[in-house]
Here is the input.
Amino acid sequence: MTAESRLVARPGLGLARTALAPIVLGVVVVLLWQWAVTALAIKPFILPGPFAIGEQFTTNIGNVLQGMAVTGWNSLVGLVVGSVIGIVAAIIAALIRVLDEIAAPIVAALAVVPIVALAPVLYTMFGAGAETARQIVAGLAVFVPVYFNTLRGLRQVRPVHRDLMRSYAASRWQATRTVTLPTALPFVFTGLRIASSLAVISALVAEYFGGPVGGLGRAITSSASSSNYGLAWAYVLGSIILGLLFYCAAIGLEKLVTRRPGG
Here is the structure.
């Protein structure tokens, strides 16, 4: 029996190997990092050691989790709202060609709007005590990849399938719902996987430029300004974990939706 056939016969073995490889690599990287910091006497303000970061993380786990909750909520709101608007806008653009041509340069312009310039303006508009600005920034970052990937997927339907729907006298919406959307689904989830990480990054960056006291971005800034670099990196670790949670959730949702009946 070949190695491939053994993995097919024992799917748990393949899953274990898939999960084990990044874990082993991560442990090796952490050990090398700690060795380099100790052997080269790297100052904490340049790069703290992973053991020091881990100690700060466990000691301040409550504050880290609180920051993750604030940033995570803003990211989630931006992800959901931006994704829904992006998918709906892509469907409309695919159905009405002239709207697609009008919207393309506008969406392209949104893609290059710098958060550094946008966040302070939104704080002025909605108030420094509201989380709205951070959610809008995350939503805009999500909208662009979801819109473009969904629109690309909606254009992948083969002409023969469109002709078949016309032969059944199906309306445009019926053809979109039964043929176009299922074909576009993999592209939609590609956009969602990209957007899941962008939502966290955008909400985190927006926290640097004002708003309520809370969230990982403000915590990183405050810790670094007080020269507590280990704690600052502990909050960075929290943001990495949050981003991974969002990304894994997007992958899990994709597998749930695209799972074949009876598979």
